[in-house]
Amino acid sequence: MAQVVPDLVSLQNPVFRSYLFYCSILVIKMMGMAILTSVQRYKNKAFVNPEDVKSLKIKPKTDENVERVRRAHLNDLENIPIFFVSAFLYMMTSPTEYMAKTLFFAFTVARIVHSIVYAVVIIPQPARGLSFGIGFLITGYMALTTLLHVL
């Protein structure tokens, strides 16, 4: 009897379900960074646009705490979208469920840890570099695996 293989982009495919789950977590995480930036702005009264400070009757200014959160958010915006693409393409190589889920999970944890040690509970290097590197290597591994698969 032939085994039925689930469609790639189907909720019946456990790898695709995992992809959707971790991508959703990462989207919510990035949205949280936007909220954290706003919280830091109000907490430190650090607004850079004149229209934002007019009603508060303060001068525009920057603050290192706000800038740190913004840099962490920018780092997310530079790395998470390429993970979305790389992971989606990687799924098309029919990876094992275990490997795909492990990579998706590890990337997500690495990005959460990166934001925490960068912007919430500042921990000296190499904590931030390691969490960044793990995510970077996972994205690169999936892209390279996909590339080699199609050659």
UniProtKB/TrEMBL annotation:
Keyword Protein biosynthesis: no
Enzyme nomenclature, EC number: 2.5.1.18
Highest taxon listed in the record's lineage: Eukaryota
Main location: endoplasmic reticulum
Presence of keyword Lipid biosynthesis: no
Membrane-traversing stretches: 19-39, 102-123, 130-150
Subcellular location: Endoplasmic reticulum membrane; Mitochondrion outer membrane
Reaction equations catalysed: RX + glutathione = an S-substituted glutathione + a halide anion + H(+)
Bilayer topology: Multi-pass membrane protein
Alphabetized GO MF terms: glutathione transferase activity
InterPro entries, sorted: MAPEG-like_dom_sf, Membr-assoc_MAPEG, MGST1-like
Keywords: Acetylation, Endoplasmic reticulum, Membrane, Mitochondrion, Mitochondrion outer membrane, Transferase, Transmembrane, Transmembrane helix
Any one cellular-component term (Gene Ontology): mitochondrial outer membrane
Description of how the protein assembles with itself and partners: Homotrimer; The trimer binds only one molecule of glutathione.
Function comment: Conjugation of reduced glutathione to a wide number of exogenous and endogenous hydrophobic electrophiles.
Family of the protein in this entry: Belongs to the MAPEG family.
Protein name: Microsomal glutathione S-transferase 1
Organism: Phaedon cochleariae
Source taxonomy: Eukaryota, Metazoa, Ecdysozoa, Arthropoda, Hexapoda
